[in-house]
Amino acid sequence: MDATSVKITTSILSMVATFAVGGRFWARKIKKQHYGLDDWTVLASLVVMWALAAVILAGAMIGLYDSHALRQAINSRRQVESSRSRRSIYNFVKCILLIAGIGLVNLSVVFLYRRIFDVVWTFKIYSFSFIVLLAGWTIAFLFANIFQCSVHISALWGSAEGIFHYCEASGPASYGFVVSNIITNILVLVSPVPIIWHMEVSTGRKLGITGIFGLGLL
């Protein structure tokens, strides 16, 4: 994806997310409903998303998504090191914000489930355990990324020798993040299904409600 596509896509997604969260708070106000943890966590995720969007747009503006321009600009060893360091800092910050944003979004969904299915005590216990799991998942991967070079955090964007000496290979952690993120997302989305199918409504209604929740898979 080139820099222009990155700018357009990031801007559109940011606006859509902002309108969605803003509409949610507006609907709460119109209906005179109290704001809950689901609202505040989704608002926090929006703030993180804005920060992530700003980082991505900054990266696009300085040419990190334009490999041709980047190759033309680099003509010395010092420039190579400077470019690699800048890209490493960019990827470091982007990953931290991405993990925090995903964690907050997942937590906001589970908090919303707790608001909707407040009368089902078994789900309360399950959802509380799931919240602890999601919070632990988020903190664990934040720490894994921040301290992948132990306490020598700046070694990540330092010299190649420093990376080799202080930093662990990021491959296993990256694979673990991707796989566990897919699993937690699926678990979050299917959590309300058992409750829906125990509701005393017609099968058609159950299918309809399940379909609405299933839209989250998209």
Describe this structure in words.
- The chain has 218 residues and is mostly helical.
- The chain has one domain.
- Helix content is 78%, strand content 2%.
- It contains 9 helices and 1 strand; from the N terminus they run αααααβαααα.
- The radius of gyration is 21 Å and the shape is globular.
- It starts with a helix and ends with a helix.
Summarize the structure.
With 218 residues, the protein is mainly alpha-helical. The chain has one domain. The protein contains nine helices and one strand; from the N terminus they run αααααβαααα.
Topology as a string of helices (H) and strands (E): HHHHHEHHHH
Tally of strands = 1
Q: Main beta sheet: strand number and arrangement?
A: none
Round the Cα radius of gyration to an integer and report it: 21 Å
> Oligomer, anyone?
single chain
- The DSSP helix count reads 9
Shape, please? globular
Question: By helix and strand content, what is the structural category?
Answer: mainly alpha
Calculate the mean pLDDT score and round it. 83
| Unreliable parts | none
Q: What is the total number of structural domains? A: 1
Helix content: over 70%
End-to-end Cα distance = 21 Å
What is the strand content?
A: under 5%
